[in-house]
């Protein structure tokens, strides 16, 4: 199923917004889901990541109606690579024993988004 850039942007903005709220106000939920130990350092990093997710979410929401262009294609490639990289990292951390089975909820979403963004970028590719 191929999703439009607008749909992917809205979904990404919603996920980023949810992560912002969760990591800022209840980071323990993510620690519990991924079965990783909570510490002051982990909460510190979670809250800093929350602000990054807020920024990413705002960007994706604001560009949801932008027409296909080389810039939008670059954003799709960047999001695709980032999502697949996070999915790979989550899988490796599970295999290393640093994350529990809950990490695969994130891995599934990241893989779906990564593949969707890269497929969309390929569809936008201009002929040489």
Tell me about this structure.
With 128 residues, the chain is mainly alpha-helical. It has one domain (5-124). It contains 5 helices and no strands. It starts with a helix and ends with a helix. The model has no long low-confidence stretch (mean pLDDT 96).
User: Could you tell me the radius of gyration in angstroms?
Assistant: 16 Å
Roughly how much helix do the residues carry, as a percent range?
A: over 70%
Count of the domains: 1
| β-strand number | 0
Label the structural class: mainly alpha
Shape: globular
Average pLDDT for all residues:
96
Query: How much beta, percentage-wise?
Result: under 5%
Q: Which regions are unreliable across 5 or more consecutive residues at pLDDT < 50?
A: none
Largest sheet: none
First-last Cα distance: 26 Å
Number of helices: 5
Helix/strand order, N-terminal first:
HHHHH
How do you describe this structure in short?
The chain has helices spanning 5-25, 27-34, 40-62, 70-95, 103-124. With 128 residues, it is mainly α.
């Amino acid at each position: 199923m191929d999703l439009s850039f607008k749909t992917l942007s809205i979904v990404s903005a919603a996920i980023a917004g949810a992560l912002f709220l969760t990591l800022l106000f209840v980071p323990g939920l993510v620690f519990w889901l991924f079965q990783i130990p909570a510490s002051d350092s982990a909460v510190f990093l979670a809250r800093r990541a929350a602000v990054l997710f807020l920024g990413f979410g705002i960007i994706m929401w604001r560009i949801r109606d932008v027409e296909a262009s080389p810039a939008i294609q670059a954003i799709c490639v960047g999001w695709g690579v980032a999502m697949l990289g996070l999915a790979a990292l989550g899988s490796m951390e599970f295999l290393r024993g640093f994350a529990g089975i809950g990490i695969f909820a994130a891995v599934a979403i990241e893989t779906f988004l990564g593949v969707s963004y890269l497929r969309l970028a390929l569809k936008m590719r201009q002929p040489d």
